[in-house]
Amino acid sequence: MSIELKGITKKFGALVANDSIDLKVARGEIHAILGENGAGKSTLMNIVYGLVNADSGKVLVEDKEVIINEPADALKYGIGMVHQHFMLIPVFTVAENIALGREQSKGGFLSLDEIKKKIKLLAEEFKFDIDPDSLIENLPVGVQQRVEIIKALIYDAKVLILDEPTAVLTPQETDELLSIMRTLKSKGTSIIFITHKLREVQDVADKITIIRLGKVVNTVASNTSQEELASMMVGRQVDLAPNKTEVKPGKIILDINNLSVSNSLGRKIIDSLSLQVRAGEILAIAGVQGNGQSELARAIVNLEDHVSGSIKLDQKEILGITVQDSLRAGIAYIPESRELDGLISSFSIVENLILDVHDISPAAKKGRLNPDYINDNSAKLVNEFDIRAQSIFDPASSLSGGNKQKVVLARELSREVKLVVASQPTRGLDVGSIEFVYEKLLAERSANRAILLLSSELDEVLELADRIAVIYKGEIVGEVGSDVSREKLGLMMAGIK
Ligand SMILES: Nc1ncnc2c1ncn2[C@@H]1O[C@H](COP(=O)(O)OP(=O)(O)OP(=O)(O)O)[C@@H](O)[C@H]1O
Ligand SMILES: [Mg+2]
């Protein structure tokens, strides 16, 4: 089904998030949308899906104007959307989540059987491996993503909007998703695909529209070079191969010995793991998601419950102390999920920037907040980290995905620390911001901090790491230098020695 947007404009107060945007997507076309963090991509898609109402402009489906005031309207016209942040309810099953909002009942009971049948059919058609009765919270993110897609497809979406679906996926899961997109395309489904990964765009898109500051910059073919795309997006050249200066590693800052972490059912997620990170070096943990890296990062700041072994920070045992004490002992922690562990959405940007220091000097003075310092410091960080916000007093929830990530980075990388634990630090960032974060992490390294980088982006690992430890099923299965080939690293990550 074809879809066209004409003159879509949306303001939030004084900010023009979408400025007279035109976009045309043909039947069976994969149309990628590229743009900086805060360019207005999600806003535009939320308008098409009826979650946000435009101030002006038109949406045409098959050349006929349609009025979309709410998601139910969008679904009626065959428009489905997978959102930037998951909208699934963890304690419900796959089938229950898919039924949600569209409940059909028989004699007063929810008729889930119909839904389950449809899920099985779709799962077969697209070669998904999904059990309709699994609880969402027990599923890896890649599978949750598929549930979101099935949720959109089950009601016959002819236009599918995917807002950064690959941000949380492993390279393998991403490849699978791209191939699902091609299958959908061959059946005539139109797809609007938002991503920050230029390689994916070139791989799968028919056309690419670049948005900057709420305006369409250009629509180009998919053979446009990555350099050109990047510079159209951010308006300057981008270099993702930062200069790494020679730093001589100093003393051991993080010393982990025989660390084991179990889940609430007693199953070992991390098994007798040992590793050391020295001052002035970046140790990257490479691994396919779900092999214990999340738990490792969380254990270091004492966010995990069932932990044994030893974690020393600068020779002092920190295992078992509080989260706050861990941070104050000198750890910067960038969690893999900004929504879950990084921010309090309803708090302002200012408040989020002082979450872990709000009660100590200089943020607090004589038991009270010190607004002069706090506000000045926020303004400084917003500027330095290029956080695109209207006001530092706006809630974090009003920020675009990438700008939320920048708030977390700004807070954590502006404290005096010994160790930086960075879990997926560039998730959801545009290429310009990624370049900036790389520089920042390297500056931390030059300042003799120890850095533990957990990343599922191979390029990132190879670019930044001094040493790479591969984690597989909760154990470190090998260590290599950053001159290792992608192929060898990939094999190690898959558990092949
Ligand atoms: N509900 C809201 N209230 C106020 N401002 C908002 C709201 N929603 C979005 N904005 C602002 O509109 C602008 C565009 O945001 P949007 O989420 O569309 O960006 P995006 O292109 O999707 O960015 P990202 O790549 O980071 O996801 C941002 O400056 C954002 O802060
Ligand atoms: Mg967005």
In this entry the ligands are:
adenosine-5'-triphosphate, magnesium ion
Task: Give average pLDDT, whole number.
Answer: 91
* CATH homologous superfamily grouping of the largest domain: P-loop containing nucleotide triphosphate hydrolases
Task: Tell me the helix content.
Answer: 25-40%
Strand content: 25-35%
The CATH topology assignment of the largest domain is: Rossmann fold
Any guess at the CATH architecture of the largest domain? 3-Layer(aba) Sandwich
Question: N- to C-terminal separation?
Answer: 48 Å
Question: What would the keywords be for this entry?
Answer:
497 residues, alpha/beta, Rossmann fold, 6-stranded mixed β-sheet, globular, binds adenosine-5'-triphosphate, binds magnesium ion
Question: Would you mind describing this structure in some detail?
Answer:
The protein has 497 residues and is α/β, with parallel strands linked by helices. It has 2 domains: 3-234, 3-Layer(aba) Sandwich (Rossmann fold); 252-493, P-loop containing nucleotide triphosphate hydrolases (Rossmann fold), CATH 3.40.50.300. The chain has 17 helices and 24 strands. The strands form 6 sheets. It has a 6-stranded mixed β-sheet, sandwiched between helices. Helix 6 links the parallel strand 9 (159-163) and strand 10 (190-194). It starts with a strand and ends with a helix. The mean pLDDT is 91. The chain binds adenosine-5'-triphosphate (ATP) and magnesium ion.
